[in-house]
Each structure stands twice: as structure tokens, then as C-alpha cells.
């Protein structure tokens, strides 16, 4: 797991809390997150600060649910700056770099989460990953 992207403790809490639904909810995160990133990019192209707020807010909350702190922090920054831009009637131009990096961060995050959630991945003591040692019925 990429610790720069994911807070391991928060991630493990999510896995425990969601139990058998974890993989399904992770799939929803991929689908909904993609829509949120698309909406953020579209709003940025239109220079519509108000349209940035809700998808950034949604992405922030969903990312935090999985311990995806870097993505959540990026989305939160976009949301907060967009709110300020709405309040003061400013162009959200200062967000261009953040929005440009958002999709790559989202995809890297989802990839890291999905790789770690794979049923073929087992954990060594201390949390390191390795390939499955399951023999699939071979003795």
C-alpha cells in the first residue's frame, strides 16, 4: 500500500467497519469518484467556482472513508478555495494546478486501494504484502 496516498490505520478501520461490503463500497467509490473528478474538471473548464464545491466535497468525504488522505486533502483544498471564490465573486484560476493533478491522484489512490483489497493478497506480520500462499486444495 502506498503510504503517501493511504493512511493505513484509517484504511484498516474502514475494512473492519464495512466487513463483507468493503469491496462493493470500494467499487462505488471508483464509480462515484470518477463522476466527481469529471464534474470538477468540467467546472474548472467553465471557470464555475460554484460547480466545483459539491463534487469536491463529495470526493473529500468518500476519500476520507477509505483513509485516502492525500486525495481527500486535495479535494478539500479545491472545495474551500471554490467556496471562497463564490463568496467573493472570484475566478477559481488558482485551482488549475490542483484540478489538473486530481485525476492522477484519484486513479493512483483507487489502484492502491484495489490492490490491497484483492483477495489474492495476504499480509505478513507488520503489514507487508506478498502474493497468495493459498494452495487451492493442493496438499
TrEMBL record:
Q: Which domain of life is it from?
A: Bacteria
Name the UniProt record assigns to this protein: HPt (Histidine-containing phosphotransfer) domain-containing protein
The record ties this protein, via InterPro entries, to: HPT_dom_sf (IPR036641), Sig_transdc_His_kin_Hpt_dom (IPR008207)
Modified residue Phosphohistidine is at which positions?
57
Q: Which GO terms describe its biological process?
A: phosphorelay signal transduction system
Which PROSITE patterns does the record match to this protein?
A: HPT (PS50894)
Source organism of the structure = Sphingobium subterraneum
Q: Cite the GO molecular-function annotations of the record.
A: protein kinase activity
Asked whether the keyword Phosphoprotein is assigned, the reply is yes
Keywords, in A-Z order: Phosphoprotein, Two-component regulatory system
Gene3D superfamilies listed in its UniProt record: HPT domain
Residue ranges annotated for the HPt domain, each copy included: 18-113
Amino acid at each position: 500500500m502506498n503510504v503517501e496516498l493511504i493512511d493505513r490505520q484509517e484504511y484498516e478501520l474502514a475494512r473492519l467497519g464495512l466487513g463483507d461490503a468493503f469491496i462493493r463500497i470500494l467499487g462505488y467509490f471508483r464509480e462515484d469518484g470518477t463522476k466527481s473528478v469529471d464534474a470538477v474538471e468540467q467546472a474548472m473548464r467553465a471557470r464555475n467556482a460554484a460547480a466545483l464545491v459539491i463534487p469536491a466535497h463529495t470526493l473529500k468525504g468518500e476519500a476520507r472513508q477509505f483513509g485516502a488522505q492525500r486525495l481527500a486533502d486535495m479535494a478539500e483544498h479545491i472545495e474551500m478555495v471554490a467556496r471562497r471564490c463564490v463568496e467573493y465573486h472570484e475566478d477559481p484560476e488558482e485551482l488549475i494546478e490542483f484540478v489538473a493533478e486530481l485525476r492522477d491522484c484519484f486513479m493512483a489512490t483507487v489502484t492502491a486501494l484495489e490492490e490491497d483489497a484483492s483477495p489474492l493478497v495476504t499480509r505478513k506480520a507488520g503489514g507487508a504484502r506478498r502474493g497468495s500462499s493459498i494452495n487451492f486444495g493442493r496438499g
